[in-house]
Design a protein that fits this description.
The complex is a heterodimer of chains A (about 575) and B (about 240). With about 575 residues, chain A is mainly α. Chain A is built from 25 helices and 5 strands. Chain A has 3 domains: about 20-215, Clc chloride channel (Orthogonal Bundle), CATH 1.10.3080.10; about 230-430, Clc chloride channel, CATH 1.10.3080.10; about 445-575, CBS-domain (Roll), CATH 3.10.580. The longest helix of chain A is centred in the middle third of the chain and has 35 residues, at about 230-260. Classes of the chains: A mainly alpha (about 575), B alpha/beta (about 240).
Chain lengths: ~575, ~240
Amino acid sequence: MFSKSKSPSLRFLLARGISRIDERLLLITIAIFVGACGGLAAVLLNRLLLDIQHILHPLRTYWYAFVLPACGAALSSLFLGHVVKEGPGHGVPEVIYSVSKRGGLLRLRSSFSRLVSSALTIASGGSAGPEAPVVMSGASIGSNIAKMFNLNDRQRVAMVGCGAASAISSIFNAPIAGIVFSVEVILGEWTPINLIPIAIASVIGTEVSRLMQGNQIPFAHHRFHTSLLDIVASVGIAILAGLSSVLFTRMLNKTAEASHRLVRHDWIRAALGGATVGFIGIGLPVVLGEGYDVVRTILENQYEYGLVLVALGALAKIVATSLTIGTGGSGGIFAPCLVIGSLGGLAYYRMLDFIWPSIPWAEEGFFAMLGMAGVMSGALQAPLTGIFLIVEVTGSYAVILPLILVSAISATLCHYLEPVSFYYERLVSRGELLRPRTDARLLADLSVSELIEKDAIVVQEDTRLGDMIPLIEQASRDSFPVEDSKTGDFLGLIRLDDLRPFLFNKNLYAAIIMGEIMDVHVPRVSPHDDTKAVLELMDHTRTESLPVVQGSKFLGMVSKLTILDRYRKELIVESCQEV
Amino acid sequence: MHLTIEEVSSLLNLPLGTVQRWIRQGKIPVYSFEGEYVFLEKDLRKWAKSRHIVLSSKSTGTADQNSKQKCRLVAALQRGGVLRGVAGDDISSILKGLVESAPLDHAIDRDELFIRLIEREELSTTGIGRGIAIPHPRSPLENAPAEPCITTCFLDRPVDYGAIDRLPVFVLFLMLSPSPDIHLMLLAKLSHLLRRPSFLDLLKSRPSDEKLLSIADEMETEMDTAHRSSKPEDVF
């Protein structure tokens, strides 16, 4: 070891020098790289989508155009399943899973795989958004850059957050939405240590996008003229948006379940889903692709269709998106949320106008915008993301009050009807959503093998009570595991309480052997058990300590006292800033 | 000052696995150098202090060793020496003879010790039965030496000592300890030995000083190392 050498080597000084750079400074520096790369990934996907759509555009007029989404979805599924060997889906749950359980580790190939697969799905007409794939890509870039710099789990998670934030910021030209999305949906915690790098990455990501694509608001529109009555009416759109979000979430989950039951092959399932979307697209072309053109037209008050067609379009978009994503196509729900929201908002406006034609309502674009915020906040159950994204992509800070109202009501309504959002649904059902500083997080960190106490005195089954006296004298615990004297297998447990009635009766010292009075039914814990399950077992059996047994061999004891002590220490060190 | 991961895990009183996980998760300040983890004591102390984590002082391990060494029964027996031929017919005369001829430290006031011993006997007998007595003052003497000592004293004629089992006493162990915890530790060890039939037989045979010490040494070592594997012999 170096400590023995007279002077520390130059390399050690250098290594120490690097690690002594203030952690915040280090993270901010790395965040700049991550932000630039995440921003580039978003620009790349955007260009890819435009180019493929441009090439495929002439084919749209033919009668067999419905085959296009089928081919795209099938190719995308084949690419994910066989070329890069990754699971289907849009990526956000995978990123959250990695943040929860794997310290932010993501594969390098994830940085491009979803870009390719989602480009195939969306450009061919599949109803999905490019944002989730870009989030996955940015997150994976962040994770792998962190790995390159040998960062620890906590720092790597912050870099994953940076990647996700820069991706969203870049694709929407919306830096605040990027920060808020990353913190609210991906990381689930605000701390100064991760918030600042995320903000920096967001700024860099947005700047990259502005340099390459120009600085423009994605859904620009003219100023809305609103009155108090419009704000009252916005409660209605909030409820409508909330209900649509619930319908959307349930439809997504149900389609995934049903299609997996019906068709076994991944790519055939994706192709069938794509073909169905193609058919719907013949009648209602509004459902095809990511649908930003539709949103743009609606916000400019130029969408001509009437109430029935618009409402039908919103419903069709929900069905088509469920079919695209549920069957294994690649893409996210961000863009569909915006389309559904704007169509829903427009339908609501048409209805208001039909019922009270004499009232001078605000423009249809205003209600479309509130609808977008409502569906976004509801489906993601992330009201802040909904509010900031809509403000930034529409450049309409002037209407922030009804926007906040709608987002809050819609998110609350959704949470009430569907407690778990689409992103977390699979994670929560498997108990894999572990937010920082929660009970589940702390217990998941503490494994039974770390809690095991090895100082119990083991006795043999033929040990007599008299022989126990000196052992009790020596012991620091009041449980004595009993082993088979020949095989060494664990047989049962003796607790001091079991011995107490006989302890002072010397006549029984030779008469009682441990094999007779041990508790053979004592619940056994395996070193691989979850600490949460162990605690539940203790509560059920009303015991304070349980034996840990692997195979048939006794390893040690695990006790509530130790768990409490370690739990507290975990909680203390979880707080990453100095107090 | 550099610390290894093993040292840190013992300082924190946590298993190695937990410290390794904390390093991986970035919950503890550490430097990585040539694939090894190195802790700087200064940083670690600052980290622990800001989180109110107690680092059990590194020297506890050695202090424990020291007190164990201090409390070695055999060492105390050796220091106290063995007396033979102390005569007397009652507690008072025997204790008088014992205090006068025991090889005690110069600092000890023998008259004071005698008075304290008698006081203790009046409180309740130290004759613990089977012919054995363990006279000792109720609290440590003011100028007791830092090292405990136990003087073994074989009597020529067994004497009625008012022992709990009324049996006459033939051997006394005069215990002088610097502190109550050392006294308790020695008392526990001595009574453990005395409960063994084999040791009692040895005492009855009035062994030579060397034999007594060597067998006591053997039994104490066995007692210290005795844990899961030991099959203890029969006790009363």
